[in-house]
Amino acid sequence: MRYISTRGAAPTLDFRGATLAGLASDGGLYVPDHWPTLSADEIAGLAGLSYVDTAVAVMAPFIGDSLSRDELRALCEQAYGRFSHAAVTPLRQLDHDQWVLELFHGPTLAFKDVALQLLGLLFERFLKDDDGAPLTIVGATSGDTGSAAIDAVAGREKIDIFMLHPAGRVSDVQRRQMTTVRAPNVHNIGIRGDFDTAQALVKAMFNDPAFSGRFRLSAVNSINWARLMAQVVYYFYAAVRLGAPGRPIAFSVPTGNFGDVFAGYVAARMGLPIERLIVATNVNDILHRALSAGDYSSATVVPTATPSMDIQVSSNFERLLFDLGDRDGAALAAQMQGFEASRAMRLTNAQHGGAAAHLASASVNADGMALAMRWAHEHAGELIDPHTAIALSAARSAAFDCPTVTLATAHPAKFPEAVERATGLSPALPARVGDLFEREEAFVTLDATFDAVSAYIAERATPRS
């Protein structure tokens, strides 16, 4: 398996190289040079397997010779051994055709743990016999990626992590899960701006030859292919428990940066019978506008009770446009450069039509979100977080003649105020993180400029020798 850039000009890499690189050197994102497929019999054979064995079966084709199956299994056992539920990602039934897939049983209570616990171990494994400089991870978070990434790499050798978050625009729980981790290789940075600005700063540092040439940079955001690969697994794990490949399954996904949705798209390309992927957004609806009308135009970010979705530039959408555009890297590079200059673009007919074959979309406002939280509690006895509620609202409005699985991406206790407003109940933090508000925080707040952030990192990161 080899990895190519969506913009066509970066070197082709193996899985190890793509994992350590994160963002491609031409500004694009790495994707496999082809989609491996599982036959109907192979998918049926996943029924009854543990999560670890499912993960090995689904991910091994993407890893190639970079790890043996035994090495991959050992890493998966270590990563998912930290989850509080033996099923890792258990399903819960809400009514006759609505289900939720709980992705929040990892150490930081969010779906990002499913991928990042493994990614941290992959970094450590690939760096073990490497004589190069330490890895400098630079990332941006709209809430959950930061805490999951920090937990995954805190204290690990040959890794420093610098995580940017939009100051004042993440929940108290999300912020504290990052800023109370006191490890010498962890650096938290609040920026005076929104998530899109933080994400743009990260990309700018990767694309600046003077900065990226001085440090060995890598990424933990979903721009890193290994993260998306790990997320493909739970689509298979859930679907076979609901009858796949004998019947199709629909999934509703709360999304901002499109990574979790793209993982579902990959599962479909691998042969999983997915009826539709519902792209569920809040009022920051660039993805809904792009998928419904072909209009991928950025607007002002509106702060909401679902901060992880308060995004107007969805990095992983580029991967979908590349795959639907006949994998023409040069054409996509020109298309994306035009968007970066004007903050607006039209999808081509091939991109728009191809997306419609796989994806539906919906934009859900605050009232719809609250009603979904209230319905889940009153009719199914479940407390769900506001992001999950956005996707559940979209799922209940869809009309698919098959089971529909909503991805529950965060524990409701990460957003207690929103849950209490909708249901009258304030969810408690699980005991394993119950002392979160007693821990001391440490972070800096910087202006959202390339000079301020890159200088701060340069003073603390280990340069190449």
UniProtKB/TrEMBL annotation:
Keyword annotations of the record: Amino-acid biosynthesis, Lyase, Pyridoxal phosphate, Threonine biosynthesis
Domain Threonine synthase N-terminal per the UniProt entry, residue ranges: 2-80
Record EC number: 4.2.3.1
Catalysed reaction equations from the record: O-phospho-L-homoserine + H2O = L-threonine + phosphate
Pfam name, any one: Thr_synth_N
Pathway participation: Amino-acid biosynthesis; L-threonine biosynthesis; L-threonine from L-aspartate: step 5/5
Keyword Amino-acid biosynthesis: yes
Domain Tryptophan synthase beta chain-like PALP: 88-346
Keyword presence, Ligase: no
Domain of life: Bacteria
GO MF entries: threonine synthase activity
Cofactor(s) named in the record: pyridoxal 5'-phosphate
Family: Belongs to the threonine synthase family.
Cross-referenced NCBIfam families: thrC
Protein name: Threonine synthase
Organism, scientific name: Sphingomonas olei
